[in-house]
Structures are given as structure tokens and as C-alpha cells.
Amino acid sequence: MRYVTATDGVLIGYETFGQKDGVPLLLIQGLGTDSRGWALQRIALGRRYRCIAFDNRGVGTSTNAPHPFDLEQMARDAVSVLDAEDVDTAHVMGASMGGAISQIVAVRHGERVRGLALACTACRHHEWRRELLSEWAANVRANGMSAMSGEGMRWLVGPRFHRRFGMWINLLGRLVMQGDPEHFAAQVDAILAMHDDLRFELADVRAPTLVLTGSQDMLTPFGDAEELAEMIPGARLRELRGAAHGLMVEQPNAFNNAILEFLKEVDAKSAVTH
Questions:
Q1: Sheet architecture: strand order including 23-28
Q2: Could you tell me if 117 and 91 are in contact, meaning their C-beta atoms sit under 8 angstroms apart?
Q3: How many CB atoms within 10 Å of residue 196?
Q4: Which residue did the predictor score with more confidence, 155 or 142?
Q5: Residue-number span of the structural domain to which 74 is assigned
């Protein structure tokens, strides 16, 4: 594990894997999940790319950050990681909260983004989701991370996957349950504090973009993905049938193939233009 000092002095932990001379690919995970959440992407993506996965402040090796958290600062954390690795431009892939952070990176630091992959995420809040996330934060503050078991996991993982692949639910559950309740709640607060106006700035994104969603995703339904794809010029939308919010774990092969197919196409076009 390596560390970089963020713009506000906080230490951010990250790791690299895959092809040392490959095109850089920055991986940004979601709420309550550290870089281990990409476990089922490591081999597939690492065969082709120089992967850089960091722990958002509040999880994994980046738990020394003071509250409150802020998604804009977390986007600056991502850029600090690229700087630490001397990476001028990289593909950026984010899931859920990491997708929101990736959107900010693409808007504020567009010159650093070669290609953009946004999975199971949204560009604005819905009142029902605000209420749900607020309940999660209140519950974990009162009862610890065990409050996210049961009903909380059902929002993240589809019913088909629940029945067939309990071991991977255990993997996801362990990552979330090992977290600190106050840090988890602080990440929720950061999500809720994000301004919906950001979506109007998505028109300035110039990086080729893939929006990837699961047909059974209840937390960020298809309409969120559809709106996101509409807001970003030239973005393409792809749906994984039968997958829910944890699509990178529920359907890793389909997820990895969709990402690789998209990024290879972006790389091929980039090679032609250069």
C-alpha cells in the first residue's frame, strides 16, 4: 500500500496492480467500500491496464480524515493519487458514490480523464433516496454497522443473486461491516450534501463515457442511468440484465467485458488521433 498527502493534508492510501506500462485506469469505489471492492476486476482489468485503486477517506487505509467529508475534496483526493503516480491522464471508473466522485473529476479536471466509466450511479438526488440514506446514517450511528445487514444489503444486491451467491454477499457484507460507523455516516452526509446543480455541468465532459447499470438496481434505478447518459455528450448506456447495485460482484464477467470493450475502443480511437 502506498500513501499520498491530499490537498488538505490527509493521508490517502492506494495500491497499483496490473500492467506497469499499460494505460492508467483509476478505480473509485462506493459508499463504505474500500479498494478491495474491486477484487473481481483485478485480474481482468490488470491484464491490460495499469490499475490504480485508492481508498476513499473514511475506509480502508484512509481513515484518518476529519469530518465532515466532502465529495469535491474526495475528487481532489483522486487527482492527488494520479499526481503521486506521475499520471497526466487516465481512464476513470467509479461505482455508486465513486461514480459521483468520478463525475466531479471529469467536470473539474477534465484534462486528466481519457475515458469515463460510471457504474450504478446518478447525477442528482431523489427525495426517497435522501430519506433512505439519512436513515442508514442514523441507524449506523445508533446501532453500529450491523444496522446495514439484512434490509440494507437487499438494496445493494438483487434477489436472484441473493439466492444463488451467498458467498459474494458475505464478501460485500464484510467490507461494509468492517467499517467505522461514524466514517460511513460521514460518507453518507457527503453524498447528501452534493449539489444537484452538478448535473448541468456534465455537458462540459469531453471524455468518452460509458454509463453501466443493472436492470434490478433499486438504489440507482435505470432512470438515473438514463438521465446521466443524456446529460453527458455522446455517452453510451448499457444495462446488465439481472444485476442490481452490486453489479461488479454479481456479474463480474459481464461487467468486466463491458468495461474492457469500451476502454479498448477509446484507446483505439486515441491511438489513431495521435
A1: 2-5, 11-18, 49-54, 23-28, 90-95, 113-119, 209-214, 236-240
A2: yes
A3: 11
A4: 142
A5: 2-273
Domain count, the chain: 1
Pairing mode, strands 49-54 and 11-18: antiparallel
CA neighbor of 67 nearest in space, from 220, 160, 173, 193: 193
Rounded to a whole number, what is the distance in angstroms from the first to the last CA of the chain?
Answer: 34
The CATH code of the domain that includes 234 is 3.40.50.1820
How far is the C-alpha of 133 from the C-alpha of 140, rounded, in Å? 11
- Joined grid coordinates for residue 208: 468518452
pLDDT digits (tens, 9 = 90+) for 210-247: 999 999 999 999 999 999 999 999 999 999 999 999 89
- CA–CA separation, 113 and 20 (whole Å): 19
**DSSP class per residue in 197-258:** THHHHGGG--S-EEEEEETT-SSS-HHHHHHHHHHSTT-EEEEETT--TTHHHHSHHHHHHH
Cβ density class 179-189: b for 16+ within 10 Å, e for less = bebebbbbbbb
Contact 118, 51 (CB under 8 A): no
Cross-strand pairs, 51: 17, 25
Any idea which residue has 483485478 for its cell? 42
Distance from C-alpha of 203 to C-alpha of 64, rounded to nearest angstrom: 35
